[in-house]
């Protein structure tokens, strides 16, 4: 199996991604590192622990990481994900605790060991990129331990979801996103341009509800809630399900298409802070640094997701 570390800020859609990873035999989840994003970092770590208990996978270590972005003040998204970050999940408070080690130290340790052993790890990034950028800055030798980075972040065609131009993960910590985008390892981005084409409609969620397992019921409660943010705000048929598309792409790339291009992050201009500047038409000479994924077969993806979640009893 492919070894992955999930760096995340659960987060309703982060939660589904963690469950999808645990249900996928092609993957070994080496660790979950959490970051401040949708809610504060202690809460994102607690949520990761609660999910591991739900999936009966308390063998996976959780490390809490950055409390705040590199330079900006933190901002949260409790209005989208609920006060706990996993609105509607109603999981019991976890007994499992995060590891005492900081997520950045754990990343550095694991990635340098992976580099030494010539068995690099795939980073699946679902939140602001603060932990990853800090690890790369503090210990550049980590780079050789990274096979590839698959991240949810950015927006171009679709416009932003937190400012008119920026997507939430990149807006929260643009400086970190900039460092990661320049790191030189293979990067795949799943931006709003693709995630907004895979809305969690009642019809797509029905097979998950029909599982009648604790995981199926929890995911249905969380994603099927009548007050899901995008449903209320944009009048869509359901809420968005951004983060699981990272693993969708990793496990079923044939469901997706995109383009290799240069993606740069705006770190200073006030109106465009955190914007992903995508050279989609190669109008500059900047070298492509990412696969920008912008199309999905959403029906195929949701069938795959339901089948996988059904494996968690
Ligand atoms: C991203 O922001 C968060 O609220 C979601 O979990 C996702 O990672 C979407 O912009
Ligand atoms: Ca997230």
From TrEMBL:
Occurrences of domain Inosine/uridine-preferring nucleoside hydrolase (ranges): 4-302
Protein's UniProt name: Nucleoside hydrolase
Sample GO molecular function, one term: purine nucleosidase activity
InterPro entries: Inosine/uridine_hydrolase_dom, IUNH, Ribo_hydro-like
Organism lineage string: Bacteria, Pseudomonadati, Pseudomonadota, Alphaproteobacteria, Acetobacterales
Pfam families attached to this UniProt entry: IU_nuc_hydro
Keyword terms of this UniProt record: Glycosidase, Hydrolase
Superkingdom of the organism of origin: Bacteria
Any one cellular-component term (Gene Ontology): cytosol
Biological process annotations from GO: purine nucleoside catabolic process
CDD domains membership: nuc_hydro_IU_UC_XIUA (cd02651)
């Amino acid at each position: 199996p492919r070894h992955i570390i999930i760096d995340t800020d659960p987060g309703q859609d982060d939660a589904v991604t963690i469950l999808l990873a645990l249900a996928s035999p092609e993957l070994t989840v080496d660790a979950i590192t959490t970051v401040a994003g949708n809610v504060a970092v202690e809460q994102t770590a607690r949520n990761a622990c609660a999910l591991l208990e739900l999936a009966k996978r308390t063998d996976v270590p959780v490390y809490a990481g950055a409390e705040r972005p590199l330079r900006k003040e933190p901002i949260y998204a409790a209005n989208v994900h609920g006060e706990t970050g996993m609105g509607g999940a109603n999981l019991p408070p976890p007994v499992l605790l995060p590891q005492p080690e900081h997520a950045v130290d754990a990343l550095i340790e694991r990635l340098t060991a992976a580099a030494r052993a010539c068995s690099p790890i795939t980073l699946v990034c679902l939140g602001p990129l603060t932990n990853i950028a800090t690890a790369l800055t503090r210990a550049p030798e980590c780079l050789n331990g990274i096979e590839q980075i698959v991240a949810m972040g950015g927006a171009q065609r679709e416009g932003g979801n937190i400012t008119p131009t920026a997507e939430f993960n990149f807006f929260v910590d643009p400086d970190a996103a900039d460092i990661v985008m320049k790191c030189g390892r293979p990067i795949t981005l799943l931006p709003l341009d693709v995630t907004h084409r895979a809305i969690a409609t009642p019809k797509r969620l029905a097979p998950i509800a029909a599982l009648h397992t604790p995981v199926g019921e929890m995911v249905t409660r969380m994603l099927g809630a009548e007050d899901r943010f995008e449903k209320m705000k944009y009048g869509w048929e359901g809420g968005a399900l951004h983060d699981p598309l990272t693993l969708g792409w990793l496990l079923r790339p044939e469901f997706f298409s995109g383009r290799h291009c240069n993606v740069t992050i705006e770190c200073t201009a006030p109106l465009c802070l955190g914007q992903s500047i995508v050279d989609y038409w190669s109008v500059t000479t900047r070298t492509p640094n990412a696969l920008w994924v912008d199309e999905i077969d959403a029906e195929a993806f949701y069938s795959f997701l339901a089948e996988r979640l059904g494996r968690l009893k």
